[in-house]
Amino acid sequence: MVGTVYAQPGSGARFDWGLGGAAELGRVCAALVVVDVLSFTTAVEVAVSRGIRVHPFPWGAQAAEYARRVGAVAAVGRGAVTPEQPWSLSPAALRTAPVVPDLVLPSPNGSAICAAASATGVPVVAACLRNAPAVARWLVNQGYGTAQAPVGVVAAGERWPDGTVRPGVEDHLGASLVLDGLATVPGGLSVEAAVALAALSGVPDLPAAIRGCVSGRELIYRGFESDVEIAVQIGVSNVVPLLRDGVFAAAA
C-alpha cells in the first residue's frame, strides 16, 4: 500500500523528478512529458521542427555505434562541433546544421530518461518553454488528464558529481508551464503538480530566471549564450515531439 502513494494516485496530472520519477510515473500514467530545458528537449523541439527524426540515447561513446546501426547521424558534445560534424546537443547548432533524416541525440539526463521511458510503451512527449502550451493542448485534445488516463510530467534535472539528481530551476519552470495548461484537466492536479505549478506565480520573468539560474549561468560562462536565448523563448512553437518506437517525430 505504501508503495502506491509514490504514483500520486487519483489525480489527472502528476509531477516528479529524474529517471526514478519517470520510472514510477511510467508504471501508472497513460502518457509522460519529459522536460529538459537546457538542453535536450529544447534541442529535440528545434530538430523535429526542421523535420529531423530524433533518437534519444543515454550519454556515452556507444552513441556513434548505435547511429551506424540505425542509419542515423550521431550528435557530438557542444565543444566537439566541427564543420564536418555540426550536429550537437546545442539548439543553436541544430538550427543551422544540415537537415538529416535521423539524428541520435545523447544526453545524460533528458535523453537517458526518454530512452528508458520508451521501453515502457507509454507515449512520451518532449516539452520545453518553446512548446509547453502546445504540448498541454495536445494532451488535453487526446483525452489525457483524467484519473483513468493520467499524465506524468517529469522534470529531468541535472546531476551532482556523485550521480544523484540535482533539481534544476529551468526544468521546474518548464514543467510548470506544461502543468499550467493542464490545470483544469478532469482529474485535477496532484499535490506535487500543484506545488510545482505554484512556482509560476513567484517568477514574474521566466527568461530572466533561467538566464540567472545555475544551469543557465553555466552555459553562458561556457560560451553558449545563444542556446539559452533559444531555450527561454516561451510558446513560440506548435511542434509536439512524440516518441514512437524509440524515435521522436512531430505528433499529428
Topology:
Layout: E1 13-17, H1 18-28, E2 31-35, H2 40-49, E3 53-58, H3 62-70, E4 73-74, H4 91-96, E5 102-107, H5 110-118, E6 124-127, H6 132-141, E7 151-155, E8 158-159, E9 165-166, H7 169-181, H8 191-198, H9 206-212, H10 214-221, H11 225-231, E10 241-244, E11 247-250
Helix pairs in contact: 1-5, 6-7, 7-8, 10-11
What report would you give on this structure?
The protein has 252 residues and is α/β, with parallel strands linked by helices. It contains eleven helices and eleven strands. It has helices at 18-28, 40-49, 62-70, 91-96, 110-118, 132-141, 169-181, 191-198, 206-212, 214-221, 225-231, and strands at 13-17, 31-35, 53-58, 73-74, 102-107, 124-127, 151-155, 158-159, 165-166, 241-244, 247-250. A six-stranded mixed sheet has the order 1-7-2-6-10-11, sandwiched between helices. Strands 3-5-4 form a three-stranded parallel sheet, sandwiched between helices. A two-stranded antiparallel ribbon has the order 8-9. Helix 1 (18-28) packs parallel to helix 5, helix 7 (169-181) crosses helix 8 and helix 10 (214-221) runs antiparallel to helix 11 (225-231). The termini are far apart.
